[in-house]
Amino acid sequence: MSPVNPFDDAATARAVVDGSGTLREWNEGARLLLGHPAAEVVGRPAADLLADDRDGAPPGSDDDQWSGTLALRHRDGHTVSVWVFAHRRPAADGAPAAWLAVTPLESGPRPEDDPLVRAALTQSPCAMMIFDDRLLLRGVNDAMAHLMGLPPDRVRGLRATDFGDRPQNAELERRMRRVLDTGRRHDMQTRLKAVGESRAHAWHARIAPLTDADGRVCGVCVSAHDFTEQHRARERLQLVNEASVRIGTTLDVTRTAQELADVCVPALADFVSVDLLDPWEHGGEPAAVVEPPVGLRRTAHRSVTAECPQTVAETGRLDVYPAGSPQAECLLSGQAIVASVAYGDLERWLQWDPVRLRRVEEYGIHSTMSVPLQARGTTLGVAVFTRFRRPDPFTHDDVLLAEEVSARAAVCIDNARRYSREREATLTLQRSLLPRWLPPTAAVQAASRYLPAARSGVGGDWFDVIPLSGMRVAMVAGDVVGHGIPASATMGRLRTAVRTLADIDLTPDELLTHLDDLVVRLSEESGDDRAGEVGATCLYVVYDPVSRHCSMARAGHPAPVLIPPDGPPELVALPSGPPLGVGGLPFESAEMELREGSVLALYTDGLVESRDRDTDAGQALLREALAAPADSLDAACDRVLHTLLPSGDATDDVALLLARTRGLPAGQVATWDIPADPALVAPVRKQVLDRLSDWNLLEATFTAELVVSELVTNAIRYGSPPIRLRLIHDTATLICEVSDTSHTAPHLRRARTWDEGGRGLLLVAQLTQRWGSRHTTEGKTIWAELGLLDDAE
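The structure assignment produced for this chain is given below.
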């Protein structure tokens, strides 16, 4: 069905006059009315058609719509008195604004004489219009004439599009044509502003066919029903529902405040600002009693215009509101405060702030509403709603709606505040439990990263680098099940336990066995309910830079990735072992030789697991990231996080530890087999002094001689052969180790005044940085560390 061009319709005279008063369009109906063909009048001043004795005046420059009777000059010279309806046509496609003037040529029978109109009028009590089968208006009742602001006896013969260029008019005509073609009723809803009213109403138009005695569709009846109140109630309900869905999507205070502003613009206001009481960032509680002056920090705002030119405070700025300001008064009273220019109170409220007063005048702000944000008995801040584009002020229903939406938002803001406080406390606890720095060791060069979960809360992931005796080092990564403070506290206990067990030099599988017993006890102590169960995973690695020997074991933890110096990254084939807390199941160690410069990657499952990929895909991506060359281990850590977590947010805690192995040169290690003869202790001391001289460590000779003498003498006296002495040094430490096959460990004791012995180990403990013993498969090793840097100073 092709659209009908109204300028081809000769039933109505139509003319278009531009802003300069020149005729631009002239249809056939206008020619029939005044006799002038289009070629004669288009391009000429429209005033030439006015008769000198006209009794009406054309529209003024400020009018949008005009109707009246004009005296027009016919082509043959006589005067024609014509009722004309004109409305302004907006400019389009660069064309200047113009006026469309119309007048019907066929008025048809009067309504009281037209059975079609009489039938429609008697069947519908609503505001209504009757159109014939050419979609020309045949009549209106008094309610519709009042709505249109036009005399009912003058508009007959016009089309719906003659009353304005609004899209609703064209849509109404399109639907009426469909009713004529199908004979079925159609409905449409629209918002229109009646003549003489400043606020648009919501209208429901019912378009019904009118039939003659034979059932043939011969016209259309359009009845309009004002359902503004129902429409506003539905809008309010929709806004409340939208607020329940869109506000509180995260546990972030700033974002929740922004969601409140976004939901209410433009549905309720043209500009909304949300100001919250300080402090927020560190979990502080708002003041229990709010007294002016009140410090409020701008947290969010939103405007119907881009870049929010109406705002006075930028996001993050702290402003102080004195007594008498609407923000302070609404916080004191706990009630919403509405200020309007119409009642003169808006200017009174803003006397305390000339800047805001100038902004009100500049943008035509006419109504504001300040609503306190309160939740669970706590005052959180203020939401201010402002109107400057919508002409109507805030009503009582608007206040109720703003209070309902603000109350929902306040609960979400309070939830976010409480979560932020708990999260900050958990992060503080976890940071205090995690290593603040990785200790420098001769065995490895290490770098690490820790990334807390973005949404699910801080968990119990941890990592550690633990120096062991004999220049060895232990590396550990673990993950406690759960999130929050309980998981962080459990992580701290497990990390302490690992360090304690590492100090007695247990093998990786033995250490995990003891750790498993601890987790079982912790679970039993936490309660009988399943919520109190404690579970964890752990990976423990020991590396010896002297032998380049590495041993490791894991308890349900992801296997480490090994990057050889000249090969691609590979997943270490390591028996999984059960998670900690299962109890009773054995753990297995794996042994391997690592070349100097190899890199071990220890990590938790939060790095490789996500909703978008499984563990295998994550580990493949990890190996790909580790395969790329990097300037340093820190750069490699950053690249891994960027590759596997491009958004920077993790759904679970992430711990990553990269360690590049080092090897001690053979020239920094000296070993002697000692016969079990006390008389040979002196020659051994001499050999030790010679070796220290070769190493240029003469400053440590006195202490080293004493320590070697005491440890070797004890091994000969109380140990079992074979006995072996080993010296190891790097730039900072000299280590003396004496091994034998006895499993009896020495004990430090306090000798009595007249005892001839028992003071040797006490002297060793006093003269060295630390000392201890470790059990081996062959027996035991007593060791002592001497600090070279302190001696050099």
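Interim note for the steering committee: The CA atoms of residues 93 and 360 lie 34 Å apart. The mean pLDDT is 83.
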